[in-house]
Amino acid sequence: MFKHILRSLTGGPVTEAAPAPSPDGLAELAGLVDRAAKARLGRSLSIRAVDAGSCNGCELELHAMNNPLYDLERFGLRFVASPRHADVLLVTGPVTKNMADALRRTWEATPDPKWVVACGACAIDGGVFAGSYACLGPVETVIPVDLRIPAAPPTELLAGCWLCWSAARGRVATKTKNGRNHSFRPCHQNTARPNQAASGFPPKPRPALRRQRSSFRTTRPRFRANGIVGGPVASNSARHRSGSKGRRDLRAHPRAQNRHARLHPTKRGRASPAHDAESPRLRRQAFRRPVR
Amino acid sequence: MYGEEPLFGLLNRLGRPAPNHRPWPRHVTDRAGWRLLIDHLGQNNWSLLGLWGDRAADGLSVHAALREDLSGDVGLVSLPCPDGRFPSLSAVRPAAIRLERAACDLFGLTAEGITDPRPWLDHGQWGLRHPLAQTPTFSTPPTAPYPFLKSEGHGLHQIPVGPVHAGIIEPGHFRFTANGETVARLEERLGYVHKGIEGLTRGKPVLEAARIIARLSGDSTVAHSIAFARAVESALALTIPPRAVWLRALMAELERLANHFGDIGAICNDAAFAFMLAELSQLREAVLRAADACFGHRLMMDCVIPGGVFPDIAETGPKRLLDLTIELRRRFAPLVAIYDNKASLQDRTVSTGIVNTGLVNRFGAGGHVGRASGRGLDARKSPGYAPYNDLEFEVPVLTEGDVNARVWIRIREVEQSLSLVEQIVRRMPGVPRGPDGITPPPLLPMDHILDHAKAGGGGEGMALVESFRGEILTWVRIAADGTVERCHPRDPSWFQWPLLEAAIEGNIVADFPLCNKSFNCTYSGHDL
């Protein structure tokens, strides 16, 4: 074994170069990386894989991404054990009806900001299982989807995750199958009240970080096992706002933010002053409710 | 009396064989015959290979497949159930319990006297009850939670785990009852990944159905595809090109290699020895890349189809595979030595999660679970199928039944598979070239398959194929128009999952991942 280790030390890593993002994925994500949001996540993204009825093929390839040849973690992307530590839910499979509730609850347990990536043909449109009495089909029938990675080989996945990371640094417009524009952005930016957006008046620009955060409430729908229960829900940030003055200095530097975010899964530390200075257009967009 | 009557002797007494069932006979019996069968099962040690419901034009029925292990004789018994009831086999074959529960959920077939009448695959979320029955009824989600078996005693507490697990694995629920650190009882609840595959394949043309079956369980996609293809070919009495037979075996062995490498590494990783996972996942990756280069898909999904194989192996494939086996042998041997010499690793795997031989035989478990506990059956040897009859290999058997034994079975099987890959590549029939230099793929044309179906009026077929987990049983009925009327794939995990409950008993909770990984049962293949 020591011979092995010595050889690894002298021979250099077996890890291969990162692939170029695939043109399909690029087309879907349509570029547009926002510099202002770069500091929000730094170079880290925690992924929670959820099997919602996959054949295990995607899982095998997700495992492969962790092997020394692909080594996903070198990009700051890593799989985490709990949805409470995750930024991204990577969902595979043609959501079976028996798994729908578990998937929904996993999504609820993931703190904002969060993204959902549908991975593989089954997760995107149900694949060969579409139309079964036991499957719901695309992931977006249960939770909102931000990005789709159509194929499962690790190189594709790696490219997809690479895109995911670059997208996570900013807002990337994506187009859904039904032509609607999806915004690839964290949910917590959806601070605009829907009625405000509908009124047609541009909301007032946010003057300062602290003031804005004090009115940080969302009308995010809450799910229970037997259906949607609506109503305003205090966001994580609002809940943790009080008594956190001492942490502010931690957010001064992007690196420090990053560490702070890792230490505090509520992700308060990831919200930077930069993000609040973003255009009001962002905030006008109402929160996309999941299609039921 | 024990084992006195040969299987076929009893089957002939039970009823007439059904026409057009190949390659083994299927005898149709009545309730009295079925009860006689139960009596004999109590006295003989025939293995139950599978039990599944069926709905034909003449109503519901239940089929059971049996094997006399010593002689390798396989036979099927069918019982028409016009009232939707049949006497349960669960008292004499505990492996039948979950199969009967699944038949009840899907077809509404009630097993009389079953020892566990709770639903299995049906979680009440489908909106339908008995979706494959003649007239499915609407249902609403259940109000009461699933009743887990009770464990009562001083100091016992429950640990619910799943269905969403911490790792990148499939969903299932485990309910541990622990006394301190020691597991007093584990109960599994599966069915979360039930996709309705048996319903989806119904009425589909064979090629479409083959695509669905290929996605039954991604890690054994080749083995399941081979089982389905061979069942269809048996049903329609097709003879496929010999080169296709050899290519199928080649893919199956590559799949076995890739999965065993991954499993050995993952077991060591669950014992906190990540070095082995890092090394063995590279070997696994080498196999997958070779498969990709040879057949165009890393997992070789959709490469085996009824009628043959598509595509043929790439021109550079044989050379690449021979180089691969040399490379794998060179790199695998030192890793085995490391596994064998690390006391801290052995401390975790030796005498952990023991399954005894009696239990393995009662449940008829195959694969590495059975072979690590002294049940040395392998579908490639018995009943055997081409081209394995022409190849030289051994089936490793150990009797310890612990995690370590299951690792060693895998290690030995890797060595055998490497030898098989070499033998197959060297002895495979050559490519038949036409006069114009065009190479036809080793595949029967679809027209030929459809003609056979029409001429024979369809048929029924069964196949037993050894996947890396154990033997797969696939039974199909093909209609005269070449569509699938009924397809039942039975994954080896059906008989291995119940043993995991037994293996963990008395071990500490922290050893569960180790035991679970050493079994590596499929969720998707089991839940269908």
From TrEMBL, chain A:
The keyword NAD does not apply. Residues 176-292 are annotated as: Disordered. Residues 176-185, 207-223, 253-270, 282-292 have a biased composition (Basic residues). Its cofactor is [4Fe-4S] cluster. Residues 188-198 have a biased composition (Polar residues). It comes from the Bacteria. Residues 55-155 form the NADH:ubiquinone oxidoreductase-like 20kDa subunit domain. Its EC number is 1.6.5.11. It is an enzyme of class 1 (oxidoreductase). GO terms for molecular function: 4 iron, 4 sulfur cluster binding; metal ion binding; oxidoreductase activity. Coiled coil: none annotated. The keyword Secreted does not apply. Transmembrane segments: none annotated. InterPro entries: Complex_I_20kDa-like, NADH_UbQ_OxRdtase-like_20kDa. Keywords: 4Fe-4S, Cell membrane, Iron, Iron-sulfur, Membrane, Metal-binding, Oxidoreductase. Signal peptide: none annotated. NCBIfam families: PRK06411.1. Belongs to the complex I 20 kDa subunit family. PANTHER family: FORMATE HYDROGENLYASE SUBUNIT 7-RELATED, HYDROGENASE-4 COMPONENT I. This is NADH-quinone oxidoreductase subunit NuoB. It comes from Azospirillum cavernae. The lineage of its organism: Bacteria, Pseudomonadati, Pseudomonadota, Alphaproteobacteria, Rhodospirillales.
UniProtKB/TrEMBL annotation, chain B:
It holds the Pfam family NiFeSe_Hases. Keywords: Magnesium, Metal-binding, NAD, Oxidoreductase. Coiled coil: none annotated. Residues 82-133 form the NADH:ubiquinone oxidoreductase 30kDa subunit domain. GO terms for molecular function: NAD binding; NADH dehydrogenase (ubiquinone) activity; nickel cation binding; oxidoreductase activity, acting on NAD(P)H; quinone binding. Mg(2+) binds at E198. The keyword Oxidoreductase applies. The keyword Magnesium applies. Residues 280-526 form the NADH-quinone oxidoreductase subunit D domain. Gene3D superfamilies: Cytochrome-c3 Hydrogenase, chain B. This is Hydrogenase expression protein HypE. The lineage of its organism: Bacteria, Pseudomonadati, Pseudomonadota, Alphaproteobacteria, Rhodospirillales.
